[in-house]
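Late entry, evening session. Most of the bench is empty. Finally got around to the prediction I had been postponing all week. Sequence below, unchanged from the version circulated by S.P.
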Amino acid sequence: MLADLPLARSAVDVDAISRGRPDLLDELLAEASTRVLLVHRGLVAAGAAGLELVPAADLPPGPWEAGELLYLGKEAGAGYLALVLPEALGAERDLDGVPVEGDAPLVALISTLSFVHLRDVGTTLSDRDAGLATTAVALAAWHARNPRCPRCGEATTVTHAGWVRRCVVDRSDHYPRTDTAVIMAVVDDADRILLARATHWPERRFSTLAGYVEPGESLEAAVRREVFEETGIDVGEVRYEGSQPWPFPCSLMTGFRASVRPGAGADVRVDGVEIAEGRFFTRAELGEQVAAGTIRLPSGTSIARALIEDWYGAALPR
């Protein structure tokens, strides 16, 4: 089993029972101990020491738009919020490159911070920060993609401290969505690993196979179907290894070790649509090619990297 996957870590109590309190966000904003994570264009405010969490008292006064302020949970008596900043904030500049006035207090606030992609810093964050950032990015993506009711198309209002959207017409409640995906290290009888390059990836970039679970399908069936569709390899035994959220925008990656069915052969026939090339590697081959730069592997934040290094038996050059 894979342990300590970067985005599966958390040390914060999500405190779901408190989300329905109507004055929760106002109460937290008034608390001196409350800390706020800023999310801007899908990026999080972070520095060398981890997330840059702003005291609630340092935020410019609201009011905040619905869905901009989200409750992330609590730890040791302190509450945590995410403030999802407007996409265009700070984007307009005058001829001298100075941000145009408008949301001046917020522009001034973000100008003191660095915003980074969670993929790039997931392995460096503490358990607390990893959980906060992953939840904040996932919720922000959900709100951005779901402003209207999927049943009738009317607008929705945000309730439960950012965890529910309610239709203004039919009063139906809608919750954050998670799409389940499978990702697998396929190994043949010679203990070689199957890696592939997607058609939209640059040359030399290889990873494990992956795909979404279809309606009415088990996780194991999805592993076998995806591997066969993309490479023509017939998989038999499938063993669960671990999972982690992948909020880009809303996936849950479930990791597996899959074995080529005995006697099925290991001739890779890529589909040419999703997969451009694929082949099996021995440990010696993969180690040499990664070290030489002829093969580029996924980032350390991904579960794909963990699956590959678990099979390899050690960390590979990054």
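Two things to note before I forget:
The first strand starts at residue 35 and ends at 40.
The chain has seven helices and 16 strands.
Will write this up properly tomorrow.
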